[in-house]
Here is the input.
Amino acid sequence: FGIASDENFVITTTNRKEITEENFSELVQDGVTLYLLQSVDQMLPLATKERIDFLPHYDTLVKSGMYEYYASEGQNPLPFALAELIDNSLSATSRNTGIRSIQIKLLFDDSQGKPAVAVIDNGSGMTSKQLNNWAVYRLSKFTRQGDFESDHSGYVRPLPVPRSLNSDISYFGVGGKQAVFFVGQSARMISKPAASQDVHELVLSKEDF
Here is the structure.
């Protein structure tokens, strides 16, 4: 890598966890992306791109949510799909010490691209690993174990209560990806973890799939 013998450097994960002799076997696995940096908190000189490899059934994207939403007992399925889309925001802001801000915007300005539904919140943010895990079909946020890093780290599932702002409003439990592809053709998630200077972006496209 052209590193001088007297130059200090660190190797980290995309979540800025430094690779050491103690955690090497835990953090360095097949397919993992690593950074070679001068320091753990070094600003990245340019954007990096990471490919996510997983093999869901093609129906996952082609027919996502169709059965669950169309089987909504004659009700309009759109509110249930929107409820799924804001579920992540409810969970991400559940431990905010200040104001919980969740905005839902319907965008129809052709000059800004295709029509879109945008859900914006001031939650704790997700790391690249957490975004990757969100992309994996049927990887429940309540059952992730082992090397899977939850996309809601520190979140504690609330006690059963009447439906409220507790991130359990998901009516069908079919998940955010089905909601995305029921409403539109692609998903773009942009997130900045509260304790990191890095901004992570995930794109899932039915057309690319």
Observations:
- The radius of gyration is 19 Å.
- The mean pLDDT is 75.
- Strands lie at 10-13, 34-37, 102-107, 116-121, 186-191, 200-205.
- Residues 19 and 25 are 9 Å apart (CA to CA).
